[in-house]
Every structure is written in structure tokens, then in C-alpha cells.
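Chapter summary example.
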Amino acid sequence: MELEIAALIPNNPIVSIDQKETGMLLSCNSTHHKWKGSTTITVVEGTNIEPIVKDIEAHYRAKGTKVSADRNVDEDYRIQIDLGAGENYIVAEGLAPNEIRIASGSACFTLPEGIYPGGDF
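The structure predicted for these 121 residues follows.
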């Protein structure tokens, strides 16, 4: 799904797309965990990222998907796409000025017996 979101970005400002091969598990409670992952899109220096994020927002709103928008502590525009059942995606300016970051999260789930929650997933 992260790559589907990235595919909505016009090709001309994209320098690279880097989807992490693994994510990590975070505890929801003592028996449940959720998966977190991310994709970083590097764009040409000077690209205005806010209109790109707003276009992604408009795309999902037009499909009837629940989308919320706000600004983070750095005043960067960000959206959260909620696909239901705990699956969500946050799209915003990345850690560097020429990056767009798509962070993903799953619903809470129970790990199969014998699986340790540390390490890469």
C-alpha cells in the first residue's frame, strides 16, 4: 500500500523511492502487537511537498476513504489515511526538506506462539 500511495506522486520530481524491507513491532498491550513500516520518497531539491500531500489527500477523500489532516510540530502539512480495522498511513514531509515519508501501521494482532517480538519483521 505504501507503494500505491507513492505511485500517486508525479514522476518528474521523484529522485528515488526507498521502501524499508523490514519494519518493527510495537506493543499494543501485553499480548498484542502492531507492525510499523515506512517508505521514503526523495524528490528534486526545491519541490514544494505540501501540494503533493494535498493531492494524495484529495485522491483518497474522493474514494470515500477516511482521511484526517493537520500540521506537525514543524508546521509541515500531513495526512493520515485510515483504511479501517487499524490499518493506517501517514504521509508528510520527511526528515529532510526534499523527502516525503509514508509511515504505515497495522491493526493490533496476536503473534503466533513462539515468535519473539524483537528484531525485524
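To summarize the output: The longest strand covers residues 32-43.
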